[in-house]
Amino acid sequence: MSDRPHDPLPGDTRTMHERMLAGDPYVADDPQMAVDAARAVRLSAAYADAYTADPAAARPLLEALLGDLGEGAHLRPPLTVDYGTHITIGPRTFVNAGLVALDVARVTIGADCQIGPGVQLLTPTHPVDPDARRAGWEAAAPVTVGDNVWLGGGAVVLPGVTIGDDSVVGAGAVVTKDVPAGVVVVGNPARVVRRVRPESPVAPATDGAVPHAPAATRGSSGSDGSAATGGTAASDGAAPAATPEW
């Protein structure tokens, strides 16, 4: 039974590791978490080293690190994860260098996606209440990226967000809430500026910014995020998408 200060679930008899896996508030001092995190660091480093010599020969290391890696999916190191085992990447998806996928909760990337360099998929959340935060409490909410999604370079996807199939996220955008299928979003916080197909228009953003969004091609502009521009940042900023009210 937890007797920690500020526990939002007093009387809970589960281990902190069990609470984390269930998506409930926890403190990250469970020994099993340390074992799993150390495994992820070793496999990530081994994959990066092996990839330099032979990307195909390195693939088994990536398969061992991740929960599931689809046929034909390709990921350029370096890769930063919390555990790796909560990440799935669909077939034929291309992930450019520098992905940060913090998988305290599940991170799901669909099929045929283009993930630009330096993208961040963030599931952890922390309390707004300063006392609970100082006591070490945290939680997580899953991130889901649909099929055929293009995330431009440097895009950040916050906890609890789902991005619909065929959508484009502009380079440098900060996605704070769910994105419907088939739209282009840009900015901080990200907002819809148009549909990906002109026959289904969306009202333009207030600043009139509409990015160029040609179809992505593996290994070309889709992988470096250069065509999907983040546009002008919004002035109101953004709080984390799924901040628990502890």
Keywords:
alpha/beta; UDP N-Acetylglucosamine Acyltransferase, domain 1; five-stranded parallel sheet; 5 helices; 22% strand; globular; disordered C terminus
Describe the structure.
With 246 residues, this protein is an alpha/beta fold. The chain has one domain (16-224): UDP N-Acetylglucosamine Acyltransferase, domain 1 (3 Solenoid). 20% of the residues lie in helices and 22% in strands. It has a 7-stranded mixed sheet with strand order 3-6-9-14-17-19-20. Strands 2-5-8-13-16 form a 5-stranded parallel sheet, with no helix packed on it. A 5-stranded parallel sheet has the order 4-7-10-15-18. Helix 2 runs antiparallel to helix 3. The longest helix has 23 residues, at 31-53. The model is unreliable at 203-223 and 226-246 (pLDDT under 50).
User: From N to C, what is the helix and strand string?
Assistant: HEHHEEEEEEEEEEHEEEEEEEEEH
Low-confidence stretches: 203-223, 226-246
Profile the largest sheet: 7 strands, mixed
The CATH top-level class label: Mainly Beta
Please give the share of residues in helix: 10-25%
Number of strands: 20
CATH superfamily placement:
Hexapeptide repeat proteins
Tally of domains: 1
Distance between the termini: 19 Å
Overall 3D form: globular
Q: Tell me the number of helical segments per DSSP (H or I, 4 or more residues long).
A: 5
Rg, rounded, reads 19 Å
Derived from helix and strand composition plus strand pairing, the structural class reads: alpha/beta
How are the strands of the biggest sheet laid out side by side?
3-6-9-14-17-19-20
Name of the CATH architecture: 3 Solenoid
Mean pLDDT over the residues: 85
